[in-house]
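Side project, low priority. Logging it here so it doesn't get lost.
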Amino acid sequence: MEEEIFYSPKEILTRILVALFTLSLILNVFMVIKLSKYKNILHVTETLLQTEQSRLQKYIAGEQTSKQEEKTIIHITGAVKKPGVYEFTEQVRLFEVIEKAGGALDTADLGVLNLAQNVCDETKIYVPKKGEIAKDITINNTNSSSPNNVNSKININTATADQLTNLVGIGDSKAKDIIAYRKTNGAFKKTEDIMLVKGIGESTYDKIKSVIIVK
């Protein structure tokens, strides 16, 4: 016959308290582990948010800088009400430049101009009067193969600054750079050599290659 074990009320209470303490300790350890995981998750999430916020700020700053740099400055003279230099923040067409200059005079011969033409940065435009021979009109059709176009081609080895500014995308600054390059390096051997001038790239060359020559 097994001997029955009897515990005093004090011992029973002690055992219950020990069990509760042990259970509480286990629960606390479990909660600490869970909280630690959550903290790690929160830390990672916070880091990702900070990274994305930094990227967004850089992107916005880059967009603003890009927009600030995308300026088109045009010099328009001739038969307009307010000739001068005008700045645009977007791509602009010839008729918009004329409007910016106060509009054309009644004596202007707009029939010789392509009013729908896109105007590049640093372009000089001359709006001729009726009966006047146009001298500084921007040429849009650079792919023309007309025989008459040969006589109007500009020799980049002898052209003056004024003549060079008649070319699409060539303003006063680039015209001076072309002349300075000629003085330093000698005559251009082929039309492609104009791309050796600082600031004149392939896109500009494509627009003017059919209206320039070297002699």
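Brief comment: The chain has three domains: 8-58, 72-127, 154-213.
Revisit when time allows.
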